[in-house]
Amino acid sequence: MKHPLFIRRAMLLAASFTLLHNGGLALAAQGEEAAPIVGTRPALNTLTPQPVADALREAASASSSSGTTTAEAQGNVAELMQMIQDARLSELRTTYNGSYGASLFFYPREMTYYVALFHDKHFWRVIKSADAGRAEAIYAGFVQQTAQLSEIEIQRTQLQAQKAYIQDVIALSEDRAKRLQADLDVARTQQAKVNDYQRQTQNEAAALREETERAQAQLRQVQGQVMQLQRQTEMGLPGQR
Questions:
Q1: Residue 119 near residue 100, CB atoms below 8 Å
Q2: Closest CA to 102 of 62, 64, 47, 147
Q3: Which of 6, 48, 123, 150 would be 97's cystine partner, CB 3.0–4.6 Å?
Q4: Contact assessment for residue 180 and residue 172, using Cβ atoms and an 8 Å cutoff
Q5: Following DSSP, what letter does each residue of 222-241 receive, concatenated?
Q6: What is the pLDDT of residues 96-133, one digit of tens each?
Q7: What helix, strand, coil percent values describe the chain, rounded to 5?
Q8: Res. 222: pLDDT tops 80
Q9: Alpha carbons 121 and 107: distance in angstroms, whole number
Q10: Strand (E) positions, the chain?
Q11: pTM score, two decimals?
């Protein structure tokens, strides 16, 4: 029995809806392996290669590229920390910029990658992916983000070092200035003492010179008296001329 064209089209649409509905119920019945809600990042290793799951994977990937929800970040962070504690991961790459860092981990058992962004050794964001290329791209993005975030921190560290260096130079300069001032004060004090000593010595020398001259005059006078007395004493003795 033939049906009109619009009736056949309606029947095809109904059959397609039934198939899609049954496929969705089958996925929901998988329990822990159920496909995640669109808009949240799925656990990529649990998805099956069915058309519906692939569509959800693409939607979730597009959503996760624009940002990660708080619940997801907390879940991945806790999962990553537990796996690190259990020594189930291989650390492939790690980059530090200041106190910021990015790491790329690999879980061999499930061929899954974990990309982590952390600050001061505390995980900040963790992205989980089974796609090696996407994981590498996310890691490169995180590395670039750490470089940008650490710029002001590195600048602060450099300025702190410059400030400390300048303060050390100031302290050394002030110490040298104090030493030079102390030497100058000693020199001035000693110069004043030397000047006083010179004046005193000059005065003493002048006084001694006068006393010496008087003593020499007195000596000449005494010697003259001695010679005169000696001549008088020897007057009339033989040998005198």
A1: yes
A2: 147
A3: 150
A4: no
A5: HHHHHHHHHHHHTTTSTT--
A6: 999 999 999 999 999 999 999 999 889 989 999 999 99
A7: 70, 15, 20
A8: yes
A9: 21
A10: 90-97, 100-107, 112-119, 122-129
A11: 0.45
